[in-house]
Structure to design on (106 residues):
């Protein structure tokens, strides 16, 4: 962290502008997802997805079993997986990085 930088509180992260240096040229996309306490989300990735847990805790249920998630966890979901993410009692915030979706013409 530089001298002028300050840590962001959880409620400030949504307004933060995170650098996307070189992401467009490489065909990558990223999102920060926040689940409320005990919130759930079913996902069907159309591409391989890298997930980095930023804060909170929860679990990831897949065909292979259950993985418990805590801040700092890093995992890869293959494109054909059908994961369900469930936040713990304090919520779950995570970063996803994946290949940009190609939009097909009508």
């Amino acid at each position: 962290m530089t001298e002028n930088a300050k840590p962001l509180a959880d409620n400030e992260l949504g307004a933060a502008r995170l650098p996307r240096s070189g992401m467009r040229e490489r065909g990558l996309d990223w999102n920060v997802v926040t689940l409320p306490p005990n919130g759930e989300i079913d996902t069907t990735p159309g591409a391989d997805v890298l997930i980095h847990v930023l804060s909170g805790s929860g679990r990831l249920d897949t065909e292979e079993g259950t993985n418990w998630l805590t801040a700092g966890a890093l995992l890869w979901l293959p494109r054909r997986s059908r994961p369900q993410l469930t936040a713990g009692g304090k919520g779950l915030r995570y970063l996803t990085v994946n290949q940009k979706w190609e939009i097909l013409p009508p």
Q: What stands out?
A: Strands lie at 28-35, 40-42, 49-62, 65-70, 74-77, 84-99. Residues 8 and 16 are 8 Å apart (CA to CA). Residues 1-21 have pLDDT under 50 and may be disordered. The two ends are 46 Å apart (CA to CA).
